[in-house]
Design a protein that fits this description.
The complex is a heterodimer.
Chain A lengths: L6 H26 L5 H19 L3 H22 L4 H23 L4 H8 L7 H30 L1 H6 L4 H23 L4 H15 L3 H26 L3 H30 L1
Helix pairs in contact in A: 1-6, 1-8, 1-9, 1-10, 2-3, 2-4, 2-8, 2-9, 3-4, 3-8, 5-8, 6-8, 9-10, 9-11, 10-11
Chain B lengths: L2 E11 L5 E11 L3 E5 L6 H9 L6 E6 L2 E2 L9 E4 L13 H7 L2 H4 L7 H13 L15 H13 L5 E5 L7 H18 L2 E6 L11 E5 L3 E5 L17
Parallel strand pairs in B: 3-8, 3-9, 6-7, 7-8
Antiparallel strand pairs in B: 1-2, 1-4, 4-5, 9-10
Helix pairs in contact in B: 2-4, 2-5, 4-5
The chains are: A mainly alpha, B alpha/beta.
């Protein structure tokens, strides 16, 4: 029997493909701004959203989406308007989010396997309605990134220069933060809240070591993210492993290989100079 | 001559701090090439940031192109080369990508680059002598070449006002000479207003028409030839 004969695997591959492309595309801009851990902080707040969903009897994914976007925009607001250091703003949201999640989950009496599915990913139980949500949000987010690509690059390269030129730097930062929130919410079914940031960051680290331009770094990261998700799902299917962990370990392995490869190449070119 | 930059009775202090600038009156006309010099900590970079609207003047008024600086509509008319030692990102940005970023405001945030935008980017790269390095990551260039790439970024937006903050800091003397010659050429060819901020005059002194010395306020404003010899070292503490 082929891996694609099973309905749940077709849904898993389709959902994973969207997340594998979207997470590094958004993560690219976070890494460039030295905000690699933003996804982690938002993920913990998304956990509070999942818990609120259980408590209120509404969709945990929808509640997580709202919580993640609000948290991401709040971090950006604290960082830009109140001069709070990026890591301090993250810490505030990070710890408040996880604490709220624990309190709400215990209040809802929902500390069970469903919660663990969100924490560690549950891609093999993805439904067609999950896929529709992930695909529509993913396509919309990628389209927005494409539309704003030049502006986001300009702001990342030189925020003050962009402001002097009249680009809406604050709005662009807010949109990017909101996209990070959406990405976390749609990715948590694939790799889990605890690992979602890894898929946003590790492919970008790997691609940045091998690429020769901004564009090739971003496209390379999306390619690596997609390959890791597809390969990780395949490995986890045949080896009966947790898909989220397998996907992230693959991405981490590629990042380590890329860093080591770059160091070796640099050493060789310095040796021959 | 139309006035591009106009400051009237401007003062500035950071919150809770002593005044950095006091009673600054300054007008820069279209097409002027002005060096703003002074010792480190004298307020010249603050003056530049106030001119650009990056800092809000505590007192007085600041106008650019005849409009209050906070509400200037066509800010893409400004080309800004900030003081820097590195790019704001880790990815290997090529010269072409860095320069293209300087065209975004002029072309429109949501617009795709058309043939005119691409030609403007290519022309800016050629103009600073980096035509053969368009696809080279900026970090692989020498310090002097990197500064040229940042100038090209500012030029890509076809600026009417070009503002440079310590553009040759950390660059060797030969590169400074060549950079000064490039600025003179740009001034002659483009007719843009150039404001060049530096703690030392160096090679640029031969080309500027006007020097503004800043030490908490404007202590000299005139042609470099009329500058008293004791002022030629702006880092010197004058009575």
């Amino acid at each position: 029997m082929s891996i694609l004969d099973a309905d749940f695997m077709r849904l898993a591959f389709a959902t994973g493909a969207v997340v594998g492309v979207l997470a590094p595309a958004v993560g690219f801009f976070l890494v460039q701004r030295r905000m690699s851990l933003l996804g982690d902080g938002i993920g913990h707040t998304a956990f509070a959203g999942v818990a609120a969903g259980y408590l209120l009897g509404i969709s945990p994914v929808a509640a997580a989406l709202v919580a993640a976007v609000v948290a991401a925009v709040a971090v950006e607001w604290l960082r830009s308007r109140h001069g709070t250091a990026g890591d301090q703003a993250l810490a505030l949201i990070f710890y408040a989010g996880i604490a709220a999640g624990v309190v709400l989950i215990s209040a809802a009496g929902a500390l069970n396997a469903n919660v663990f599915a969100f924490l560690f990913g549950s891609i093999l139980t993805v439904t067609s309605s999950d896929l529709a949500l992930v695909a529509s949000l993913g396509a919309g987010s990628l389209a927005l990134l494409g539309l704003l690509y030049r502006g986001l690059v300009a702001v990342s390269l030189d925020p003050e220069g962009a402001r002097v030129n009249g680009l809406p730097v604050t709005s662009l930062n807010g949109v990017l933060a909101a996209l990070a929130g959406v990405t976390v919410a749609v990715s948590m079914r694939v790799v889990g809240i605890l690992l979602v940031a890894a898929l946003m960051v590790l492919p970008v680290i790997a691609a940045g070591r091998l690429a020769t331009s901004i564009r090739s770094t971003m496209v390379g990261a999306m390619g690596i993210g997609l390959a890791c998700v597809l390969a990780g799902l395949t490995i986890s299917y045949y080896a009966d492993l947790a898909p989220g962990g397998a996907i992230v370990l693959l991405a981490a392995g590629i990042a380590v290989l890329a860093v080591v490869g770059e160091l070796a190449l640099r050493g060789r070119s310095q040796g021959s100079a | 001559m139309p006035v591009v930059v106009s400051l009237s009775d401007v003062g500035f202090a950071y919150p809770g701090g002593p005044p950095v600038l006091r009673d600054v009156d300054l007008e820069i006309g279209r097409g002027e090439f002005v060096a703003v010099a002074g010792p480190n900590g004298g307020g010249k970079t603050t003056l530049l940031r106030v001119i650009l609207g990056l800092e809000r003047a505590t007192t007085g008024s600041v106008r650019l192109f005849g409009e209050p600086v906070r509400t200037v509509h066509e800010r893409y008319r400004i080309g800004y080369v900030p003081q820097r030692t590195e790019l704001g990102i880790d990815a290997p940005a090529t010269v072409a990508e860095v320069v293209a970023a300087g065209r975004v405001a002029r072309s429109g945030l949501l617009s795709r680059f058309d043939a005119g935008d691409r030609a403007a980017v290519a022309e800016a790269i050629e103009r600073v002598g980096l035509g053969g390095s368009a696809r080279t990551p900026v970090r692989r260039l020498s310090g002097g070449q990197q500064q040229r790439a940042y100038i090209a970024k500012a030029l890509a937006g076809a600026p009417e006002l070009l503002v440079l903050d310590e553009p040759t800091a950390g660059v060797d003397v030969d590169a400074q000479e060549s950079f000064a010659a490039l600025l003179q050429e740009l001034h002659a060819d483009l007719g843009a207003t150039i404001v060049y901020v530096s703690h030392e005059f160096g090679a640029i002194e031969r080309f500027v028409e006007r020097v503004v010395l800043v030490r908490g306020g404007i202590v000299y404003d005139g042609p470099p030839g009329a500058l008293p010899s004791t002022w030629h070292d702006p880092s010197h503490v004058h009575p």
